[in-house]
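Re-run with default settings, no changes from the original entry. Doing this only to confirm the output is reproducible before filing.
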Amino acid sequence: MSVALQRVAVIASHVRPPCSVRHSPCCHATLCAASGSAVVFMENPKAPAPSHAEKARTLMAGQRQGFLATTHHQLGAPYGTLINLATCPESGMPFTVISRMAEHTANLQKSSVCSVLVTEAQGSGDQLAVSRCTCVGEMERVEKTPGRRAAFLSNHSSATYVDFDDFQCWRLKCDRLRYIGGFGEMSWVDGSAFQAARPDDIAAGSRGAVDHMNEDHQDAVLAMTQAFGGLPGATSATLLSLDRHGFEVLAVTGEGRRRTRVPFETTLSHLDDIRPAVVAMTERARTLLGLPAPKSGH
């Protein structure tokens, strides 16, 4: 996580309490107070956003490991373990290849009810400020088909054990999942909605662009937030995430912290579309705000 995003992570407590709703001419605002700090979530009606099903599907598609929680077959206690994952192309559901001798395999053979947690958290910084989802359902043993074998090896090229007879393929049948997109953004998603959704390729490949904008172009992020995010009085802004429809921003204003969304003019189709879209929006924002052109090379 970049230094800029680490600074974002302190905006609120880890649990979102009941919220009060206010209205402004351009956005609905939801105020969430938390342990001495607060963040207002602006709902911009002009800024479409991916559904939580899409966000969860995108997150799952990019994962190689997950945390499997089962019930221990002897102790009857919760039992968590780290496993290697891949996803089924047709459904997006996670599957794994595990040894018959593993403790969690014995647990699944007694009770297939389980959950799998995946998260984009890594490195330093507040890990609760980033996206994660917990899939709840049942594991079922499935055939080690050529397609599943190829998908697993694509994620884990050194997993030669995939061909061992004593390693089994298990797939999660997810009934529901809990998606959390950071502080204050969370919901339950039905398993069928997750399967019907498609990963957002722009969001999946945008981390480098997000870090670059925060580290080198904070003035541009602020200008776009002021012009198109419903926060003309913002004094600073940090890009949180970016997808095919637009991007999420955390801004500081005279009234406190605000989280808002800025829409692209058109939906992006390829990662190469990010730069020209952001450049064009920045130019439009500076024109609307009457700001001078940036220095050469900026």
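The radius of gyration is 21 Å. Confidence is low (pLDDT under 50) at residues 1-26, 28-37.
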